[in-house]
Design goal:
Umud Fragment, subunit A, 3 domains, elongated, Signal peptidase I, serine-type endopeptidase activity, protease, signal peptidase activity
């Protein structure tokens, strides 16, 4: 990059060294294939250039020697010279891929947070609901939001007049079915399809598999509360239900429960209007934990391959990010909203303090599963306890047990996308 600031003489000497390096390479790789005449010609022309370079001859002399050497290299160079543009591009891409893979494997690995188990410290995919069409971003704004926040727009209009009804499962969770979609219109993506009923018509919206559709429903039909999981439960419990007989795709007639949203629309009016902002994407430091142990309070990324409580449920091996809450030998207990470690309130991270105080959007720790009420837990010698900062809505060690030490990958280092308030050093 500093070649622009070199004198013409220095640039010519640098150029001469490059040509000599190429001629030496051809000599060593192809000397057993060349005729005596070609070999002698190569050595003679390269020798002249080398001698004048050592004597610090003027640039014009070096240029004359290079022009004499180049035809010889062209004649005897084989695959080394001349080289086509596509060969150089392939070599460049292969080397770049090797460097990137090496960095990813041993130094810094990019990681995308899909769910909101660490919210509000880190965001998974989050919804931004627009109350009216006037609140929706214009076309230019959508392009900017797509680039800056990875925001995808969803606009669902009513196919008929009537109240908006939401089919739900027996546990009160909105009914869904698996489907396939495309990410960036190209990459295959697992999705969930949700049906809503308006009047006597069905309207379907498909979203990424890990997106919290309930959060969007809460913000649409019961806005204004920060504790979205509890607000959704309360809203569902307060609604009226009705049961109907519906015909399935295979011709069966089955009862289905619907929740009444209380929202009535006319044909063509908006039923749902929201954007999905992509989850935080960060670099993970894969080096540090080879030399030092992770500390309580640190965020850490780990593989799930050997967590029996997860794999037994049919989950696919993947990477999770949680906060380390317990080391080998620690005794943990949750007395909502506080997490206790070895008899005292846990320390080591701001998220611990915020949850204990239920500060802002932190709602405190929930005692369930492994850390259920009245059952302190002692961590084994070969594992860690991993908890999500969003204890109300986190699938973590309380449900599936310890993280084996050997499966720790690294620590979150830097949130590089999207360009929200989380951009910067990881917490």
């Amino acid at each position: 990059m500093f070649g622009l600031f070199q004198s013409v003489e220095k640039q010519m000497r640098s150029n001469a060294r490059n040509w000599l390096e190429l001629s030496d390479k051809i000599y060593h790789y192809r000397r057993d294939e060349l005729t005596d005449t070609d070999l002698s010609d190569l050595q003679k022309k390269a020798g002249a250039l080398r001698m004048h370079l050592q004597e610090r001859a003027e640039g014009g002399r070096l240029k004359f020697d290079i022009e004499a050497l180049e035809p010889v290299l062209r004649r005897v160079g084989g695959k080394f010279y001349p080289r086509s543009g596509w060969q150089e591009w392939i070599e460049f891409l292969v080397v770049a891929a090797i460097v990137i893979l090496a960095c990813r494997q041993y130094f810094f690995q990019p990681f995308k947070i899909p769910t909101n188990s660490m919210w509000p410290t880190y965001n998974g995919m989050v919804p931004e609901v627009h109350a009216t069409p006037a609140d929706e971003p214009a076309a230019a704004s959508r392009l900017i939001r797509k680039a800056a926040f990875g925001a995808s727009a969803y606009r669902i209009d009513a196919p008929a007049d009537g109240e908006v009804l939401i089919p739900i499962q027996s546990n009160g969770v909105p009914l869904w079915r698996p489907t396939k979609g495309r990410h960036w219109l190209v990459l295959p993506q697992a999705q969930k399809a949700y049906d809503l009923v308006v009047g006597d018509q069905i309207v379907t919206v498909s979203v990424p598999e890990d997106f919290d559709f309930g959060w969007m429903l809460k913000d649409t039909f019961a806005p204004g509360q920060t504790d979205y999981s509890a607000a959704l439960r309360n809203w569902l419990n307060d609604r009226k239900y009705s049961d109907r007989m519906v015909t399935t795709a295979d011709g069966r007639t089955v009862p289905l429960r619907f929740i009444h949203t209380g929202k009535t629309v006319k044909k063509g009016e908006r039923v749902l209007s929201f954007d999905i902002v992509t989850g935080d994407q960060l670099f993970v430091d894969r080096m540090s934990y080879h030399f030092v142990r992770p500390k309580v309070g640190s965020g850490f990324v780990f593989r799930t391959d050997n967590i029996e409580g997860l794999m037994a449920g049919g989950s696919k091996p993947s990477y999770y990010i949680k906060r380390l809450a317990g080391e080998p030998g620690d005794t943990l207990e949750i007395r909502p909203p506080v997490l206790y470690r070895n008899g005292g309130p846990i320390t080591g991270a701001q998220a611990f303090d915020d949850n204990a105080a239920r500060h802002g959007r932190y709602r405190g720790y929930i005692n369930t599963g492994l850390l259920g009420q009245g059952s302190p837990y002692t961590v084994s010698e070969n594992g860690y306890i991993a908890l999500g900062d969003n204890s109300n809505n986190s699938l973590d060690s309380r449900m599936w047990g310890e993280v084996p030490k050997k499966d720790v990958v690294g620590r979150p280092l830097w949130v590089f996308y999207p360009f929200t308030s989380h951009w910067g050093s990881a917490k």
